[in-house]
Amino acid sequence: MPDPLPSRCRVCGGEVGERHDDTWFCARCGWRLGDAPDADIPPPRIDVVYYLRYRDRVKIGTSASPRRRLAAIMHDELLAFEPGDRRLERERHQQFADLREGGEWFTLTGLLATHIDGLRTRIGEPWAAYDRWLGEAFRRLSS
Ligand SMILES: [Zn+2]
Fold first, then answer.
1. In the predicted model, what is the mean pLDDT of the chain?
2. Quick count: other Cβ atoms within 10 Å of Cβ 110?
3. How far apart are CA 103 and CA 97, in angstroms?
4. Cα(137)–Cα(123) distance, rounded to whole angstroms?
5. Distance CA 52, CA 61 (A)
6. How many angstroms does the Cα of residue 131 sit away from the middle of ligand 1?
7. Are 17 and 26 in contact (CB under 8 A)?
8. How far is the CA of 54 from the centre of ligand 1 (A)?
């Protein structure tokens, strides 16, 4: 079980983690507490396809800065993230074309609902997953 970290993670801002011997590790991104990516390293680009619910509809879109993007779209709930860019977004738009209501909005039902449930099971809470991907990408850049 994760415990509260003695201080916030410098990579993702996470507040819970696990202690191994004398070292704390962030439960969200996996970085060692106190460590931070080299300031010379530009933040990695993480492209996600997002599933954003408004009433009984869902918008399937993509962004490399989802926090800013999602703040600009009226919605009730972020249902899921999936790692991917424009190409995956186009694939999903085609896959669920029968449910398309217009633009990037689809009716939340049937195979689309099943797909989103699957993502939530496999990938978990979207922002926790995003921080995990960010931590992994920073680690790849730093090694
Ligand atoms: Zn972290």
1. 93
2. 12
3. 11
4. 16
5. 8
6. 7
7. yes
8. 30
C-alpha 60 to ligand 1 mean position (Å): 27
In the chain, % of residues over pLDDT 70:
99
C-alpha to C-alpha distance for 70 and 82, rounded to whole angstroms: 15
Catalogue the E-assigned strands of 55-143.
Answer: 57-63, 77-83, 100-102, 105-107
pTM of the model: 0.83
Using pLDDT thresholds of 50, 70 and 90, give the confidence band for residue 39.
Answer: confident
> For residue 57, which amino acid is it?
R
| Span from the CA of 100 to the centroid of ligand 1 (angstroms) | 37
Output the pLDDT for position 35: 87
The band of 143, judged by pLDDT with boundaries at 50, 70 and 90, is low
Q: How far is the CA of 107 from the centre of ligand 1 (A)?
A: 35
